[in-house]
Every structure is written in structure tokens, then in C-alpha cells.
Design a protein that fits this description.
single chain; about 325 residues; alpha+beta; four-stranded antiparallel β-sheet; three-stranded antiparallel β-sheet; 5 helices; about 15% strand
Amino acid sequence: MARKLTVQNAVWNSLAVLLCLSGLALVVGLEVPAARAQTAQANPAPTFAPPPTTITTAPTTTPTAKPPAAKQTATAPTAPSAGAAPAVKQNSQPIASAPVPNPKPNASGATQTANALPTTNVVASANGGRMLNPYSDQPETKYIKYPVTSNGCKDARSPGKPYFVEFRSRGAQSFGHTFVLYGKLGEGNRFASYKVAGLHPKGDSAAYSMGLWFPVPAETGPSDGDVDEQFMTAHYCVTLTEAEYNRLVPYIKQLQSEHKTWHGTTYNCNSFGMDVAKFVGLDTPNPNASLPKDLIQKLAELNKHRARDTTAGLSSAAGGTQPVRR
């Protein structure tokens, strides 16, 4: 009996111990999650979100009304054209220069040089006491201001030489122009008759511009400005016998028939004039190394104290020999 009671007491004691352990485990189980929750709230886990993007916007301000622009009283300067003279500086004396003829207007209003000009005696006709320029439609050059004279041949006159050829240059709205006058001397300071020959582009200023790069159609007669000495910049005269003149005229006509194009860097007005000069026995400068005015001045200087070469074209058979091209 005592042993049975001992066993029952042991069982009840074991149940009591298990019950206490269960209660303790329950209490512990409730307290641990609470402690973890408190720890999580106190120390939250870091997050790995992308860095924030800040967008900067321009501040919007109320625009203020701008004051009205002042009225312009001066015109904006424009770039000078290829042939325009340089502007004169303020408070300085202008440099005197030879005037230049204006190009002729065509039907569309564009400017152009004289074209379809005959190679004839270009003595201008009188109109109310004023001499008309037959090669210009411009008001500025409609009337000749200074008619052609023989003043440049005064020192070259010689007995037995009633004819002449004069090498001239004149101003232009580009580089200038070289041409020749040839004919018969007159009394005083005039020619009895004369003709004009010179190579120049045919058409308007566009033809001239293109001719600086490649050959363009040309004319070989007078052009605007040739018969008005207000535009002349240099000249050199040679007098001829009748026999010499009769050989020169066919040669000039030959040059006119051969040269139908003008090219600024190969064969141009300088080349044409120097071919004539070589034919009459003159020593000539390089035609492509000088502007027209300088070329004629060099021609005069080279032959100032030099007799003409009598073995040149004038002394050969009619028509002469071809001068060497430079």
C-alpha cells in the first residue's frame, strides 16, 4: 500500500513539474516575439531604395515689359563690292583718283558693260554743244566730259609720220582696262580720225566675274569710258609712217578676228595691247604681271630711251609676224 502511494505521488509531482515547465515555456514564447518587435521598432532594418532624383525647375518670374528700341538714325554699313573704292577716313583729305565709268543697265535693270560695239571711227556727234558718248546709256557718262585729244602724241610727232598708235589705260569698277587708239594725226591737239581696239568681256558684270576663272566670250572694239579722257590713267604714243600704218591696220584686224574670248589670267586686255606693241617694235613688260595703268607706265619707261625695233612685225611682209605670246 505504501508503495502504491509513493508511485501516485511521483506521478502527480511529475505532472506538476510538466505543468510548470509548460507555463514557463508559454510565458517565454510570448515575451520573445514582443522583445523582437520592440527591437525592430527601435532599430529598423536599412532599405536599399535608389537615390532620389531632384528636378530643378526654372523659377517662374513675371516678365517685365522691355522699353521700346531706340529708332535707328544711321544705316548699317555694307561690305564694299569688288570694284568699290576704299572709304575715306574721317578728318583726312581724300586721295585724288581717276573717275570710273558706270556699267550700262540691261533691260532687266542689271548693270552691264557696253556690248556689240563696232570698231569704227568713234568721233562723237554734237548735241546742243555737248558731245554724246556713243557707248554709254548712263546719265553720268551720257555726255563726254573730256573728248579724246592727241596731247599724248605731242612729243612723238615727227616729219613723215602722220599716223599713230597710242596705248592707253583707263579706270573701271574692276582693275581697269587697256586698249589702243590708232589713226591719223590732226592739227593742234586733235586727231584727224581714230579707231579703238581692245579686248573685253561681252555682256554684264557677271561675265567679267566668270572670266576671272575661265574664258568668256569677248569683244574687241570700244567700251564705255574709252572715248572720255576723264577716265584715262596712262598713255604712250608711237607715230608711224603711212607704210607702217598700212601694215598695222590688218594686224589689228587679225587679232580681233582671232581672239573671241577673254580670260583674266591668260589672255586679256593687257595681252591684246602688248601684242600690238610688240608688232610695232616696242619692248614690252609682262602683260599678266601688272594692272593696266602700271602696264602702260612700264611700257613708256622701257621705251623712253630706246629706238623701236625695225626688225619687228612692221618691217615684214603685209600682215607681219605673230608676236610671241607671254
